[in-house]
Design goal:
It comes from Piscinibacter gummiphilus. By secondary structure, the protein is mainly α. It folds into 2 domains: 49 residues, Arc Repressor Mutant, subunit A, CATH 1.10.10.60; 144 residues, Orthogonal Bundle (Tetracycline Repressor, domain 2). Helices cover 70% and strands 0% of the residues. It has 10 helices and no strands. Helix 4 packs parallel to helix 7 and helix 5 runs parallel beside helix 8. The chain is globular, with a radius of gyration of 22 Å.
Length: 221
């Protein structure tokens, strides 16, 4: 008697609750971004994300395959959005000092307006970058952050307004640190020093001005 042929695996059924896969994917990522930013990877649950979307876990797994893959897509998307917004700055049209001022101001404003980005980065650092290191695109996505600073620095040095020993990565790190702290540490800082986590617009503007000033004073000759 000839051996029985192995049963063919049934093809995965397409989702039936949407005719717009791109919109569905974007909606999943939007809800998942808030969930992972709020609760971290371990705390966020797929069933809660599905419930918030009024859909099923099956739909989410259909598009992303696993919670890990969804989380990585959220991280990559968060960085991609910041770099895309940064790319709209026409820094080459500005004198070097003004370009650096614009870049620092943008970083401050973006992170303040997008606390989910800050929380996602902080959460991933608590995981020692375990998921982001699996990304095949994250370094390429963020290369522009350094080339942007490098172009500004090179023009500033060439024009004789910036010190000659500026390191683009070091400068980028300093800018990020000064802006990141305002969001990442707002609650602990406010509790310890009795400065509310939600500051008046005038205080936010003053803090922004000080950050720009500190970076410029460091970069200028």
């Amino acid at each position: 008697m000839p051996p029985t042929a192995p049963a063919k695996r049934a093809p995965r059924a397409a989702p039936t609750r949407t005719n717009d896969p791109e919109r569905t994917t974007a909606n999943i990522l939007e809800v998942a971004t808030h969930a992972f930013a709020d609760k971290g990877f371990d705390g966020a649950r797929i069933d809660e994300i599905a419930e918030a979307m009024h859909t099923s876990k099956r739909m989410i797994y259909y598009y992303f395959g696993s919670k890990e893959a969804l989380y990585l897509a959220v991280l990559e998307g968060a960085y991609q959005r910041m770099r895309a917004a940064e790319a709209t700055l026409d820094l080459d049209a500005l004198p070097p000092a003004k370009a650096l001022e614009a870049l620092v101001g943008f970083t401050h404003d973006y992170q303040l307006a997008n606390p989910d980005f800050v929380r996602l980065v902080a959460n991933e650092n608590m995981l020692h970058g375990a998921f982001l290191k699996q990304s095949k695109t994250i370094r390429e996505q963020n290369a522009s952050a350094i080339t942007t600073v490098q172009r500004v620095c090179e023009r500033g040095v060439r024009d004789g307004v910036f010190r000659g020993d500026l390191d683009p990565i070091d400068l980028h790190m300093s800018i990020s640190a000064l802006c990141f702290f305002n969001v990442a540490n707002r609650y602990t800082f406010s509790l310890i020093f009795e400065r509310g986590p939600t500051l008046p617009k005038s205080a936010v503007a003053k803090r922004r001005e000080r950050i720009v000033e500190m970076v410029l004073r460091f970069a200028l000759k």
